[in-house]
Amino acid sequence: MTSNEKKNNGPQNKSCLCKLTLEMSRLEAKKPSLCNSEPLTSEGVRATLSVWRGIVSSCYGPSGRLKQLHNGLGGYVCTTSQSAALLRNLSVTHPIIKILVTSVQNHVSCFSDCGLFTAILCCNLIENVQKIVLTPTTVIKLNKHLLRLCTNYLNSEACGCRIPVDFHSARIPLCLVRSVLTSKPASMLTKEEVDHISALILRTFLLTIPENAEGHIILGKSIIVPLKGQRVTDSTVLPGILIEMPEVQLMKLLPIKKSGALKVALFCTTLSGDLSDTGKGTVVVPCGVSLESAVLDQLLNLGRQLVSDHVDLVLCQKVMHPSLKQLLSAHQVIAIDRIGVTLMEPLSKVTGTQPIGSLGSISTSSYGSVKNLRTAKFGSKHFFHLIPNEGTICSLLLCNRNDTAWDELKLTCQTALHVLQLTVKEPWVLLGGGCTETHLAAYIRHKTCNEPESILKDDAGCTQTELHLVAEAFCRALESLAVSLEHDGGEILTDMKYGHFWSVQAHSPSAVNWSDLLSRCGCGLYNSQEELSWSFLRSTRHPFAPQTCLPREAVGSSSTLTVDCLTAKLGGLQVAVETANLILDLSYVIEDKN
Amino acid sequence: MAAAGSVRAALQVAEVLETIVSCCVGPEGRQVLCTKPTGEVLLTRDGGRLLEALRLDHPIARMIVACVSSHLKKAGDGAKTFIIYLCHLLRGLNAVTDRDKDSLMSENIQTHRRHWKNCCQWKFISQTLITFQTQILDCIMDQYLSGHFLSIFSSVKERTLSRSSLEWLLEAYFCGRVGRNNQKFISQLMCDYFFKCMTYKSGINIFELVDDAFVELNVGVTGLPVSDSRIVAGLVLHRDFSVYCPADGDIRTVIVTETLQPLFSTSGSEFILNSEAQFQTSQFWIMERTESIMKYLHSQNVKLLLSSVKQADLVIYYARLSGISVVECLSSEEISLIQRISGLSPFVIPQGSSQCEISDTALVKFCKPLILRSKRYVHLGLISTCAFMPHCIVLCGPVQGLIEQHKGALHGAFKMLRQLFKDLDLNYMTQASDQNDASSPLIYKNSREGNQLEEHGNGSLQKPCPNTVVKNKNKLEKAQTYLKVISNVELEAYIPCSTVKLTPTNTFQRDQTPRCFSLEKDGIIDDCEPLIESNSTANSTTENTRVDISCENLEIAGKGNVLPMGCRLLDMCTSQSYCSSAMPAGCVLPVGGNFEILLHYYLLNYAKKCQQSEETVVSMIIANALLGIPKILYKSKKGNDSFPQVYRRALHALQTNQPMVSSQTGLESVTGKYQLLTSVLQCLTKILTIDLVINIKRQPQKVHDEDSEDEL
User: Whole-structure pTM over 0.90, yes or no?
Assistant: First the structure.
């Protein structure tokens, strides 16, 4: 499964002009030649681009191939097929690839999903456009028109490849999560595990939604707690916060006598007895005067105040002085220190406390409460579990067999959660499995053939022939993106009614009845028993109008659908086209080699 | 190592720069990708950025780049045009010397001596350039070009700006600055921003404010398509809240520039702790004090604390308790911007224990977190007390490099507007020759004086008399006197209302002129001949307005007639009148090389009637160099829109006094163009005055500094 690919650094094709200008002191040479300045025409750049495209497109989709990234010195090994992990670890040197990579990375950090989609589409667009003999300016202009056509269509009611999401039923959201999980094969999940995890993710997501939401919803937070070496099906989600703790320490804290709500104090300042900032001047302390003991006195006073305020649980972000701890535990107050800054905000939210920054008097209003606490053991780890009265914080205990697979699974879960959040904001999903791409390509072909005026209406500078050429390149880019989903040598077909994506296994007998060979389209919406006609995606077809306006009953009938987040995909599409335009527009590359 | 600082070397440098820069010029221009040593990638069409990214080594190249960047700092536009002008000018100068060299070759065999001789010649040319730039350019701008200017304001007096004209201006500007698929969008964004920030009373100071605080007035968001960029009302601070307490209604806010919690000791002081008890008391006092300050702020209904420093945990805690939102670690620029907008001054913590009165609080309409791509910002609805209505631009783009480009372009656009909204002062001397389109009664005297002068000139050439030798030290100036004379002569001849009785004198004088000039070098006569032939009608029409001034001058000149010879010469000098006029703010011309073609046309006209050979040459070179820009702009156009066609039409229109028609919509600032031309000429004079570039390896630091200053 694992293919070991090494990043090709790309030939150092620094154009001769740059050399000339950088070393201008030796300028007595001849004039620079312009052809070298066009970075995309250079053979080396093309080769680098196609290597890069090979890497990303081989990762794409549920059957995508995994990449193993390591530094060859025995360091950390990363096995992945996700753009987020792949791009973070790859170091590219060529500036053009760098632009492409950062663009995809920025997209991923915005939307989490559709990174490979963006990367492959961008590469395809650049490669296809280079085959056309048109000036970059024309291509860029037309690409922009085509992009607008796409976004308008995908956002319109008439769009034949998007489905409304109804969060009253779990079906479509579950499909969405499952699609995300299956598209990342490096998390190594079996079918049952996928079912388990996708249900878990959906539950986690629902736990972060406040119960009494009116108007503006502020989603809560889910904390992913690592639990490596366990079975995936051991993963679980709990409301509240889990604080990991060594077993010995946990034993000391026990037993918790009190039942019912517990009073909590949360400190953000240090309770270790350090001296606070004394200012820029000097502080003179004569011999015999011990400031430490003075501070400790102060701390102990604070401890007494906490005890008299009937606080049951003291949490401290930083270190607590042992004497203070002892004092508190002597009075059956549980003290936990070194919480860390990341947990502070969720803790403050869960318990309703205000982080205390004072060693003096504490206002009673800054105390909060939790419903209950208990200790829990998951795998070999011991946790201290704070159960809130209410709240939108939950902990997702995520298990996987090994480190690499766990890292991949964690990323996948974060992606899925983010995608759900995006879908709440914009409750639509697009058909996945390559169907949106082929459908969109069919739609663009149809539009450019039949209504080229509407696309060119506010632009007098381009002819219809130019439009046809660029549109063909654009559609080919979309289609070959869909084709990248197939890695096992199968053939890709498209139907002439919906323009969906159908794949046929490799070495299947040709010239037979297609409807027997095919079962369902890529997204799973249609089956082959309908009266459809197919043709190879690679072959040229007459443009046809794909059926728009997806009927509701069609969505209801099919059991499992492959769907993608609309927001992420639309963003990816825009970023891909914009980045491609940007790269096509380059006339010089100036590299600073300092 | 020393290399001759010749025009040829400079030209080679400029030509390399030109090839790089010209690919980005104009609406058809493309992008350049620069990588920094840190690994950042930058997209740019900005000439200044481009030249910087090249990190040039060549001394002349570095000088040019330094000139460009100093120009950019002022005008915010025109780096690419700068290089192209410069290159064309150098090309023109080089062509002239090539011609001259043939004649010089036989005389000077030694190359070294020739070089020095060349240098002297360059010095003259550079002096002429300075004269041109300081006097003639202004004169031509004022007298000829100003008639063609349009105003960006729909009403000049009140300086009201219509949206459509600003759109034209900005679209034309962004055509040269951002990638072609975003030009329209960015210019619309800028236009929206401008009108949102402007109020009726806003003047030029709004541009100053935006220009100065541009970094604080925008936020970049990567990973989103450019079309997601937008304008948000209020101010976005590049920080997150340390404490956020939601509040409704108008929020009172204070600015703090020091820590609110008192410290044990301030710098330079010493704090002596004598016992544990004392330490505890002082700590207690600090706590009490902090609490009381915060309680006081709370009692004054302050809901937002903007701090330029990090505040202690204690302050944060009390702020949270009293429902005060806190933003810490604001940069000094952010603080000063807030102060400028709201007129708020920092809250001074009272030294004594007595309660203080907060003199200064400002009201904020809202104050809330703004989340842009999972990064949190503080969004403040400041209520403005000045003419600037605070708004921020959220710039989106797939990569940081693109956002930087858009930021740079927007900033440059504000710089350009800032210049455009200023009046431009034009100072120049009206030449003595301007006197001549005077009314007829005076002409007789004048011409007679000219006659005498001419004779005097002859005398000085043959047997120098002490009075004039001082004046006419070099041949150049001699030539000047002659030229004055001759122009006097034929201008009279062409004045429409010249009376019959004067004609004999005129003809007599003309008879004399060739005799006088035969003594001089041939070149001057060559230059003068076309002058006689075509003293244009344009001259008589455009200069009619100047009759009053020249009348006065003439009277002085007339008096001078009685005075001794030397004095009269002096008088002639003083009789040049200093003119200062101003180009009103907001002067624009249609895009597409209109300014260049106009100036080219008038410079050629000027050159034709120029008296000095140097001046003629310089004017011609500048006039021709100006065409470089329109040539590039129309390069891709074919047929009727090709450059020769456009040029021909424009010249025809100018000759027949018809309005010039431009095929393109869009406007450009005249001030920008004017400043650019002056900067280029200054740069050129700098280049020309260098004769040797000496490479020094090890040098005492001090001398080295001087040297580099000299060069850059």
Answer: no
Burial of A198 (0-12, 13-18, 19+ CB in 10 A): buried
Beta-carbon separation of A575 and B321 below 8 A:
no
Q: How confident is the model at residue B554 (pLDDT cuts 50, 70, 90)?
A: very low
Residues 51 to 80 of B: which have CB under 8 A from any A CB? 53-58, 61
Sign of the Cα pseudo-torsion (A390, A391, A392, A393, in order): negative
Neighbours of A3 (CB within 10 A): 11
**How sure is the predictor about A195, in pLDDT bands with cuts at 50, 70 and 90?**
very high
> What are the pLDDT digits (tens) for A119-172?
999 999 999 998 888 888 889 989 999 999 999 999 998 888 888 888 888 889
Token pair 């829109």: residue: B641
Task: Give the H or E element holding residue A530.
Answer: none
Residue A443 amino acid letter: Y
DSSP type of residue A33: P
Counting beta carbons within 10 angstroms of the beta carbon of residue B310, is it exposed (0 to 12), middle (13 to 18) or buried (19 or more)?
exposed
In the block, tokens 């007599």 appear at B508
**B549 in Cβ contact with B528 (< 8 Å):** no
- Nearest CA-CA partner of B581 in B77, B34, B12, B146: B146
- Tokens representing B681 are 């000429």
Q: Read off the tokens for A79.
A: 């096995």
Cis peptide before A255 (omega within 30 of 0): yes
Q: Chain B: residue nearest A361 by CA? A: B287
The token pair at B19 is 């090839």
Token match 């604070």: residue? A302
Which amino acid is residue A182, in one-letter code? T
CA–chain centroid gap for B462, Å, is: 48
- pLDDT given for residue A512 in this prediction: 67
CA neighbours closer than 13 Å in the CB half-sphere of residue A264:
27
Which are the contacts of B113, defined by CB distance < 8 A and separation ≥ 6? none
- Beta-carbon contacts of A500 under 8 Å, excluding residues fewer than 6 positions away, are A431, A435, A438, A439, A494, A521, A522, A523, A525, A526
Q: Are the beta carbons of B313 and A289 separated by less than 8 Å?
A: no
The position carrying tokens 């450059």 is B643
Contact (CB, 8 A) for B435 and B560: no
Where on the phi/psi map is residue B456: left (φ > 0), alpha (ψ -120 to 50), or beta?
alpha
Nearest residue of chain B to residue A364 (CA atoms) = B321
| Token duo for residue B372 | 């842009």
How far apart CA A564 and CA A410 sit, in angstroms, is: 19
- B284 in reach of chain A (CB within 8 A): yes
Query: Does the distance separating the beta carbons of A289 and B274 come in below 8 Å?
Result: yes
Contact B561, B568 (CB under 8 A): yes
Q: Which residues contact B177 (CB under 8 A, 6 or more apart)?
A: B45, B46, B405, B408, B409, B412, B413
Query: Is residue B374 classed exposed, middle or buried when 0-12, 13-18 and 19+ CB atoms within 10 A define those classes?
Result: exposed
Are the CB atoms for A97 and B35 separated by under 8 Å?
no
Which is it for the CA torsion B193, B196, B197, B202, positive or negative?
Answer: positive
